Amino acid sequence: MRAKLILLFAVVLATQQCSSPPGASVPKFTISFTKEMSDQAQDGRLLLMLANNNASEPRTQIGDGLNAQLIFGVDVEGMKPGDEITIDASAFGFPKRSLADVPGGKYFAQALINRYETFHLKTGHTVKLPPDQGEGQQWQSKPGNFYSKPIEVNIDPAKPQTVKLVMDQKIAPIEPPKDTRYIKHIKIQSKLLTEFWGKPMYLGANVLLPEGFDEHPNAHYPLMIYHGHFPADFGGFSETPPDPKMDTTDYVARFGIYGYNKFQQQEAYNFHQQWKSKNFPRFLIVEIQHANPYYDDSYAVNSANLGPYGDAIMKELVPEIEKQFRGIGQGWARFTYGGSTGGWEALAVQMFYPDDFNGCFAACPDPIDFRAYCLVNIYKDKNAYWYDAPFKKLPKPSHRNYLGQIQSTMEESNHLELALGTKSRSGQQWDIWEAVYSPQGEDGYPKRIFDKLTGEIDPEVAAYWKEHYDLRYILQRDWATLGPKLKGKIHIYCGDMDNYYLNNAVYLMEDFLKKTNNPFYNGEVDYGDRAEHCWNGDHENPNYVSRLRYNTMYLPKILKRIQESAPKGADTKSWRY
Fold first, then answer.
1. What fold is seen in the domain 22-170?
2. Is the pLDDT score of 182 beyond 70?
3. Partner of 395 at 20 to 30 A CA spacing, among 50, 115, 133, 259?
């Protein structure tokens, strides 16, 4: 009986997994754009999206989580107005690999082209990539991208079908934010990046000025760099409280609470109230805009594929900010902090520019030891997607909740990226790690750390990553020279149930730091019990509160550090009013 039940279950499972019966017709979609969009030929990634609901446009429903909708992509070059490009069973897709796998039924279909520009790099290579247009490298909302209005289609595997989609809509430009009393915006053309990319490239920053800035023209201020993803404006700061009548029916499943939008606005107002209070430290806080053709953020380091972003930020942008806004301009008066991407950056720039910062506070940092590249050891594992087992094919997860429940796997996350773009051009997380950390390939694009389709790891690329960007390895390798410059400067925080398993690399870093000598690192590594991503060292408040308080979380520690470490004769008074 048990054997029969197992056989029956296998038959049922196979039936469920087979979306289209043998011999079924596969739908085709022809996509074009009108001359009103442009009279020029276009290069880019042409995307077809299918959603089983019309709660919002399909382009806003793409992801790798449990509610992921369907997307298929092809590269196009020289696509002219009126040209019809066919997307059929050969197009790579996610979560279904092919249009042949899409079950019959009602869908809402939409097309979009993520437009590429041609860059003639300093290295002699020519590459085609999507430039940032002020939106922070988001293909769904990138100004200038063409898209079609969603239409309802019925897919019937029993009938041949060709659906026409015409991209006659263009995403509008973004209105730049305006300066206020406290928040100023700066943008410079980087000579270093322009030389690398072969066309004008810019860096920007949102600068929060201290209370009394105009009233104290002789004061000079310490500089706080708050690293993180692309900031359209300075976030989490508001001079006005939320409207008491504001709707509070919005629900955030991650935190299990209603009214989070109003809560965030109240926190932003509370920060403003603290900021102008009498005893609050008078600092400059800076959020950097360094979106690039690969991602919303450069990781603030020099890179073979992205160019010298680290030097451009430290040698061009930071001096300009300190010049315009009266920064003290010395390493003892500069600090850096951030979470996730910003956490990695905070630690990396403290290490790579050890004399230019007096402390880093790295919360939930992206992998800082590549033996724990999330759940992959890039040096020993053969495959990034599957555990090594003789008789099982067990996938490696990429995302969990605080209970350990899995929402996506490594293969799924990377296959979504592969649908969005080849050659590390998806604009997503795994591709930017590759773009930052990898050597440049013969074609001018990043060398793959692992095969995007199969997950097979390239040990030569892994060796390059180790020597250039494995932060724990570099610290251990160079501690004799780095250690004396970093004593008391390293602070790392992570939840022990980080959604992306980032705590695993922090454990390995801590193991090294605890054993340091000549000197002992004399910093801090701390963990949040059952805390998810973005935990930053706050043991008193839940994560949904503390994640909004980075700018106040570390300032008391920074002030104490300045008082203890400022060199003799340093300006520790002009800004203490």
1. Immunoglobulin-like (2.60.40)
2. yes
3. 50
Q: For residue range 207-235, list pLDDT tens digits in order.
A: 999 999 999 999 999 999 999 999 999 99
Q: Tell me whether the CATH fold assigned to 22-170 matches the one assigned to 183-367+476-492+542-565.
A: no
Q: What is the 3-state secondary structure (H, E, C) of 455-497?
A: CEECHHHHHHHHHHHCHHHHHHHCHHHHHHHHCCCEEEEEECC
Report yes or no on whether pTM surpasses 0.90: yes
Architecture of domain 183-367+476-492+542-565: 3-Layer(aba) Sandwich (3.40)
Contact indicator for 114, 145 with CB cutoff of 8 Å:
yes
Classify residue 198 as left (phi > 0), alpha (psi -120 to 50) or beta.
Answer: left
DSSP code per residue over 514-539 = HT--SS----EEEEETT--TT--S-S
pLDDT digits (tens, 9 = 90+) for 304-316: 999 999 999 999 9
Beta strands in 235-385 (DSSP E): 251-252, 257-258, 284-289, 302-303, 307-308, 334-339, 360-363
Residue 79 structure tokens = 């696509």
CB atoms within 10 A of CB 208: 24
Residue 124: CB partners within 8 Å, gap ≥ 6?
none
